[in-house]
Amino acid sequence: MKGIISIFAFFFLFYFSVLSQELTKRVIAEDMQVPWEMRWGHDNYLWVSGIDGMILRVNPDTGARDTILSQVPNLVRYPTNEPGLLGFDLLTKDNRTSLFAAYTFEDKNNVIYIRLIRYHYDTISKHLVEPHIVLDNIPGGYSHVGCRVKCHADTLIYLTIGDGGRLDNIPSQNLQSYAGKTLRIKIDGTIPPDNPFPQSAIWTWGHRNHQGLCITSNNIIYSTEHGTQGDDELNVLKKGGNYGWPFVEGFCDSPTEEQFCKDSQIIEPQRAFTPTLAIAGIEYYDGKKFPQWKNSLLVASLRNPFFSVFPLNVNQDSVLDWWKYPIIETSRLRSVCVSPDGRIFLGKSQGDHYGTKNNSDNAVLEIVSEAVNIVDNPKAISRPEAIHSYIKDKTLIITNAWQLHSFKVYNNVGELITYSHNNDNNHSELQIPINYQGLLFISLRLKNGFFQNKALISIIN
Questions:
Q1: Could you state, in order of their start, the residue ranges of all structural domains in the chain?
Q2: What CATH number has the domain spanning 22-371?
Q3: Of 97-111, 255-269, 416-430, which gets the smallest average pLDDT?
Q4: pLDDT at residue 214 above 90?
Q5: Residue 3 pLDDT > 60, yes or no?
Q6: CATH class for domain 378-458?
Q7: CA angle, corner 88, sides to 85 and 93, nearest 5?
Q8: pLDDT value for 77
Q9: CA–CA gap between residue 234 and residue 2 (Å, rounded)
Q10: How far apart (Å, rounded) are the C-alpha atoms in residues 435 and 169?
């Protein structure tokens, strides 16, 4: 019993800490091309790629922007599909910054390929110069092109490549094709000698369309992958690992999948999501701005108006939980960027797939934590009448409600159950129906700016 009480106490204190902060958003820059990728630059600016071929430097405080590349050469873009300027990453070495970007182009037969190109940043002209092809003729397609780029240890590049929307010849399971793979190359485009397959850039295989890639401080590689109608995946990418597509979606949980997994030594995901969330950009977080998310993964979602936090174990090779946070967004959240001091930025596009309606709603946001005061003793507030909250007969009751500005009720995984503003100053008591059984967390915002947070148990007979 003592152990159970201790676990509950830790659980309560942790969520008390989470709910002691109000999350909101700040629009930094808008009316832009779809911000497919964002990176924090050596100059303390956000570097942002637009899917139509533009790369910007954006001041994270004022939103002022500079165009450092107006157009990637020979880029092919189909506005209702995925091709365009996709992932990129920055590498600053010996006081020189290089940008490695992936984009789609067509050959003379109108076949779509992906190209990895390198630019150097000219600090005098403040433009990207000296384009150089690092890796060429990677299989692409009208859909499922991936594609994230991640530099590592100043010498390596990881690159996610989707299956191109093709199931003919099963390219994801074909080690002679780079489609449906994670690639690993040196920054000069050559093959590292310790890759799992001789003379091949393939690091992992059996992927459908992985659109997120990050590396933790312990060098654990995570990716997010889009499923079909279900089974989005959050994966740890292991050297030489086969992740099963198209014969396995999510976990090995059907008879045919079980047999294929056994025969082919399939690596199952850390998490699978049905219905799909269209999880996209991912970053590892170890910052100070949001201490409750330290040693976690931050994941953007294209299909739902929230972003996800996945706390990791000490070794960082396993996901412990899933917390969801609404950002009050109706648009698609595609990219995540974390600054060295722990600020969190999101790239959003409109409700359609690739921002084809117009660019006005495409934006860069910052997640902002509004630190609040926690009132442990309700009598400490400026008015003598204490405000109380409790649940009785499927009803949340709040006393002395004239002091209340608003309230929010969450369940134990951070989902918002109900919320409201108090627009009537005359009510001494509010009664709100609660059709929920289990542990709830109540956050009360008072008119004097103070917050009260409380854990309650709701029982439905």
A1: 22-371, 378-458
A2: 2.120.10.30
A3: 416-430
A4: yes
A5: no
A6: mainly beta
A7: 145
A8: 87
A9: 35
A10: 51
